Amino acid sequence: MKVSVIIPVYNTEKYLQQCVANVLNQTYEDLEILLIDDGSTDGSGMLCDKLHENDHRIQVIHKKNGGLSHARNTGIKSSSGEYILFLDSDDYWDDKELIELLIKNTNNGTVDVVNFRYKKYVEKGNQYIQCLNSLENFKYSPNKNIVLENLLNSGLYISSACNKFLRTKFLKDNELYFREGITSEDIDWCARLMLCADTMSYCNVDGYVYRMRDNSISHTLKYKNIHDLKENILECVRLGETINKKTKFYSIYFTFVAYQYGTILFNHNLVGDKRIAEMMQELKHYQWLLDFHSNPKIKMIYWVNKIFGYNNLLRCMKLYTKMRMKREG
Length: 329
Hints:
The chain has twelve helices and eleven strands. With about 325 residues, the protein is α/β, with parallel strands linked by helices. The protein folds into two domains: about 5-210, Spore Coat Polysaccharide Biosynthesis Protein SpsA, Chain A; about 215-329. Helix 7 (about 185-195) packs parallel to helix 8 and helix 11 (about 295-310) crosses helix 12.
């Protein structure tokens, strides 16, 4: 079974060598490594070519800058492996057996999506932070609802492409490409995975390392991030309208969407833009999403909203943001 590793590259010369070296160091060797040079302006493109010369499994595609989604989509269309992994070029894997372990959880190559865990590496302070709970007693079931409910209740089905091992035919047959020109592109993509997948599984390994170059998210969020997050939530709601409300999958799906709604409630105050207030009033019409509150954080928001009302909920979130930023210094 060949595995395609898709690595979008844009101005990450400093980190690319480590990223690729840890892929080449995998105990599983039947790999196709696709370096998608997205119009880099530093030495990343040349480094891609040098890496290709050293290992025949590395293929390089140079293209004009089109953003992360376009680079990933290029990788999907160019892949020839039975399964796909996404890896950002400033991140890396720290488990040599990651791919072997993931393959063991595909039920002989039949599972559409295998989820796994990740951790953060904070450059400032040189520390690792565990992000997701360990689920050691997971048992595979061909019933997607059972698996998804288990993962969502454990906080393990998240809106990230990089912690998923994906059957290539499943992606291509369902045209599961990333929306281009937006941020938070993983959100509606993960929602579409839920809708289209017949089977899902889980591997209790945290071999993906997400590098945090700046420990303060308030330094990186802009109006577009909040705007696109809102648009992704609305798109997820639109997609969910196709689900029969009487089915178990309806509540499972909207549990995922509710978490994204909670995310924008928590983070919208990190951007000082007057347009955000209007946006949040628009989202008032979607507070029904909080009814799907199996997640403890969403349950807390649900009760604050139910007791004090939506506008007071927003005030509480503003106070929370001030405390949060004060802690970050």
